[in-house]
Prior knowledge:
CATH architecture of chain A: 3-Layer(aba) Sandwich
Strand content of chain A: 15-25%
Number of strands of chain C: 7
Largest sheet of chain C: 5 strands, mixed
Oligomer: heterotrimer
CATH architecture of chain C: 3-Layer(aba) Sandwich
Low-confidence stretches of chain C: none
Order of helices and strands of chain A: HEEHEHEHEHE
Radius of gyration of chain C: 13 Å
Number of helices of chain A: 5
Distance between the termini of chain C: 24 Å
Bound molecules: adenosine-5'-triphosphate, magnesium ion
Strand order of the largest sheet of chain C: 2-7-6-5-4
CATH superfamily of chain A: HprK N-terminal domain-like
Shape of chain A: globular
Helix content of chain C: 25-40%
Order of helices and strands of chain C: EHEEEHEHEHEH
Distance between the termini of chain A: 24 Å
Shape of chain C: globular
Number of helices of chain C: 5
Structural class of chain A: alpha/beta
Helix content of chain A: 25-40%
CATH class of chain C: Alpha Beta
Radius of gyration of chain A: 13 Å
CATH topology of chain C: Udp-n-acetylmuramoylalanyl-d-glutamate--2,6- Diaminopimelate Ligase, Chain: A, domain 1
Amino acid sequence: MKLIEIKEILEAEVVSGEYDPEIEIEIGCSSDLMSEILAFGKPGSILLTSLMNIQVINTANVADIKAVCFVMGKIPDENIINLAKKNDIIVFITKFTTFESCGRLYKNGLKSCSYLNFEK
Amino acid sequence: MDNNKRTTTKIQELTYELKVKDVMTKDVETVSPKMPVNFLRDVLQNKRISGVPVVNDNEFVGLISIEDFIKCLEQGKMDDLIEDRMTKNIKTLYADEPLVHAVVKFEKFGFGRFPVISRKDKKLVGIITKSDIIKGVLKKLETAYHDEEERRYRASHIFNDIIADEVFLKFQYYVEGKNFDKAGEASTGLKKTLYRLGLSPEIVRRAAISTYEAEINVVAFTDGGIIVAYVEPHQIKIVITDKGPGIPNIENAMKPGFSTAPEWVRELGFGAGMGLPNIKKFADKMTLRSKVGKGTHLEIIVKLSNYRDED
Amino acid sequence: MVNLKDIVQKLDLKVVSGDINREVSAGYASDLLSDVIANAQKDNIWITLQTHVNIVAVANLQELAGIILVNGRQPEQATLKKAEQENIPILLTELSTFEIVGKLYELGIHGNKMSSA
Ligand SMILES: Nc1ncnc2c1ncn2[C@@H]1O[C@H](COP(=O)(O)OP(=O)(O)OP(=O)(O)O)[C@@H](O)[C@H]1O
Ligand SMILES: [Mg+2]
């Protein structure tokens, strides 16, 4: 699924500046506990979370997660956005809840991180 | 302090980027094994060099040094053939090896110079000294980075900064306890460095995730600690130490879901009890030692799968 | 409203506590208790990987329809006991939050509409 499609499905806004709308994201994952994301998140995936602090970006960074979507209309502060920009992570904000966002993306064909096997 | 650290990293990176052939001296004065030692007199004097490679039909066969020459002089054996007085089985470097290998060899053997040969046909292509390395790195720094940054350190530091012998590269980070605004700086910094060193994304990811989990634990549970990463030819070793409260029961701590994280840590997105299990999952080897009231020592090893023995 | 019993059957959830004969209004997915307290609504089905006993209290407070624990998580002993006492359905799945939410969505369960955004 292209980033631009994700943006449309979630009626989201990209707050991390310029991005390539054609980038393909195959996998979605959602958690508010970072270690869970590190355990199951897949490189190149999108993370949906209601947690909002710089550790979300650090987590995405070390796990090679391509995009982060903050839910419920919360707006990340500058530190978060700058760190994301610096590490080439795309940041979305959507007014939907985590539940609604995951549901919509799944319905439109985004796969889950547990969908693929669990190896390293 | 901070700037110093940064520059060190750049130098270290450069020793991986640059190859021996990039900094070696190419026009090398050579002698042939069938010449008498006496012939060296002019070479050593004119060129002010302390040793000369001995080459037979382009093939490197040994090194004759100023010491060898002086011995012959003392013994009145100036007519001996060079091949009988030279040192054979000299350690050499391949032209396409990363500079860091040269640094390590200098530290290990204490020689002043190494002949450089081509991997393909074993022909002598140059010679490398410590000062060639320093000059080469300096020159590269000059073109790669701003002048101002380049002036911040002295060339003589290079060999101190690159901690050699078995260890190829060492990076050190301090982790502040209880400060979640800074948490992650060490591991994301290390990640960037590993990536720049050209390690595979999968290896870098595993090392970064493991280090991040360990770093977060130091932040969450202690008053601070140190992370030291050693990039060796065949593995990355990351050692995390703190003088925190220690872990009373390691077996329990390792269980997925086990956590003593307080509420404030949970609200920051941690405390799933998955950190240590994650390290175990992503590392090739994990050694955790801890003493209550003393601190915790964690060692993480990620093997470099594309490891290739050079010598 | 969708019946929790139907959900359990269709998604092959394992019931470890509570009466599943109740209606689900919508879904809420979160691993932060404060967030659930602030934003979950009555009769929501709550998706989380938190297994701590506090989840029962939160579910009780918000009058949630039930809790689905994801990624193969098992409730702690105390959690189970409290959930039985309070008649809070706890359901288990091997699936991730993303996937179980996706499947719930396909059964017609949507997210809460957030008024303040
Ligand atoms: N450096 C440390 N010093 C003291 N205790 C530690 C340290 N590292 C881990 N622990 C203990 O081990 C437990 C398990 O650690 P682990 O990293 O697996 O989970 P966590 O940090 O609680 O949660 P998560 O890592 O999922 O956010 C911790 O809750 C803590 O009690
Ligand atoms: Mg941890």
